[in-house]
Amino acid sequence: MNQRAFLGTSLGIALLTVVVLAAPAGAVQFSLAQGANGRCLDCHSKPDLGTIIVNGVRKSLTVAEDVWHASVHSRQDCTACHVGFQPREHTAEEKGGWYEEAKLTACSDCHAGQFTMYRASFHGNVVMREHDKRAPSCGDCHGSHGIIGTKSPGFRASVLHMCGRCHEEKAGTYLDTYHGKAFRMGDTATAVCTDCHGSHRILPQSNPDSTVSKQNVASTCGKCHEQASAKFASFLVHVDRSSPKSNIWVWLMEMSHGLLIAGLFFFGGLHCFMYFYRGLREGLYSRGEH
After folding, report:
1. What residues does 59 pair with on adjacent strands?
2. What is the pTM of this model?
3. What's the rounded Cα separation, in Å, for the pair 199 and 114?
4. Per the count of CB atoms within 10 A, which of 46, 62, 66, 223 is most buried?
């Protein structure tokens, strides 16, 4: 072997070593040969396959092929997420814990960076440390077989509904704001929940590292509003105008506005009624004889 060939072989071995060492600890493992999704869809594309109940929610076992082929995972193999499954009637061992695996832990095999951020988030802490299944995991926000790109207009349009499933009150108060009204009119470029609160590493406002904490909220607004100051960022967003517990000053202003409008219509209506009544008494509306 000449010197050039030896150096080329050595370089190849070194690069292979670096790739192997750099691979994530939870690299994807397939229980089926890659490209064998058709064997899974032979059963799971049937519309009458049935349903199962998972965590009190009824789930369909049918996978819509057109939805699957349009997803960002259409080139991925089923067993990348459904680890250990085989194309036959599934055993109890295969089905044990499959739901949590498919919508949470299997995601970390390919999305290690996002999973690390999620684990350090409020949602991740509730799910992984407190074991509260009510908090959202990957599959709850991104879906399952019909996952679409997060930068697509379709995903942005779905954010309010996605977050509103758990934060219904906050979704309602968001729609009262300029951003919310623009969103309702179809402006997908306007700020939605994830633009302000983040996505994978969502933290409570009381946490200094949160994107909406007192320390960071101005810079968060500055992503869209270049000259945003602390005063600009102090705008109250999630305020229920009908509740004094939300913000007493906003509630008082809302009540004053309501009373002003009610008084305007009352006295305006009273004035019109008295004017009409006087006209009747004085015969202004009767036909005179010519």
Report:
1. 52
2. 0.71
3. 9
4. 62
